[in-house]
């Protein structure tokens, strides 16, 4: 996404750039002409976002080789997202106490440690526990990466943010593909690969990122208290049911996809699943960056949300019908990625417009609640499919999306500030995309 211009570039009499100059739209050449410290954070951010979809292609292999049920394998998402959700409520306070650089480094150390331990794990329950520690590290890193990359840039902030968004998109798309490629060797390889790449990112940030100014103080319970705001609470309830559907598609779909391939006499494997979800991640990245801003400007935020939620509900119903069709599932998963990208960005942009709370606090509160929905979905999808039918989790996801629409409609009176179409700065727009896709 290219940053939209705000005002003409200006400067003070002393020659110091104003906020308008900092937010002016840069050329691509200017955007990628950044200090080494910015590139170091961008690299680590790419790997961090890759970690979200990395385990997806290897879930069936973990289930088979570790003699775990699909329900147990999907708990790798549940433990990761549950701890991420809890941590998100406190990351803004933590960063304000010890600083952005230290928060980044602690997050990276935790990811390296727990990913490396997961690579050597002997059982599925051990990996589930280690993924929880990984989730804590990822929450600390993701929640502060945007602030760090903006603070490290020497030129207009918009240029560094374009680089950050590029890293995000690449990470979301390449995570499942890398998981599939390495998972084709062994289910342990994606964990080991993540640990190595994150260790490189850690060293790069230690060497290249200078110590930043002391951040503004944030109260320990600021994010939890923010949920008392009616508009934020409405959007958080909308998001928890939406995220339930998001992670039903992401965490559960490898199993019916593998089963559908087996019915055709094929072994889909980690590489095949990784390829499908590479298409999913690529679609998500493209629509979140390029399509969502256009739709929200033309239709408005709330109409965009309701329309996409409705389309996703229909998609889930169709997936429940065609869950035995390999070609059908592949096409529907990729289409789902396109819709989810629009929804992620539009929903988080609505959060930023709906309240006058500090953006970091509002984002932490909203993200904490929505990740809880993601944590619950894998824990329910497996047992539900085992007890009823393979298409049942998709029907439940469709129902969750209908509830999400109801929450949004019922709370719409609290969203009067939404739809004024104020022009977001590049920092605000990047935050909408990064928090929305940081699922």
Rg value: 21 Å
Number of domains: 1
Classify the oligomer. Answer: single chain
Q: What's the CATH topology name? A: Growth Hormone, Chain: A
- The sequence of SSEs as H and E is HHHHHHHHHHHHHHHHHHH
What's the story with the biggest beta sheet? none
The total of helices stands at: 19
Q: Roughly what fraction of the amino acids lie in strands?
A: under 5%
What is the C-level CATH assignment? Mainly Alpha
Keywords: Membrane, Transmembrane, Transmembrane helix
Region (Disordered): 1-20
Membrane topology: Multi-pass membrane protein
Subcellular location: Cell membrane
Please explain how this structure is put together.
The chain is mostly helical and 439 residues long. The chain has one domain: Growth Hormone, Chain: A. The protein contains 19 helices and no strands. The longest helix has 31 residues. The radius of gyration is 21 Å and the shape is globular. The two termini are 20 Å apart. Its main location: membrane. Keywords: Membrane, Transmembrane, Transmembrane helix. InterPro entries: MFS, MFS_dom, MFS_trans_sf, Tet-R_TetA/multi-R_MdtG-like, YfmO-like.
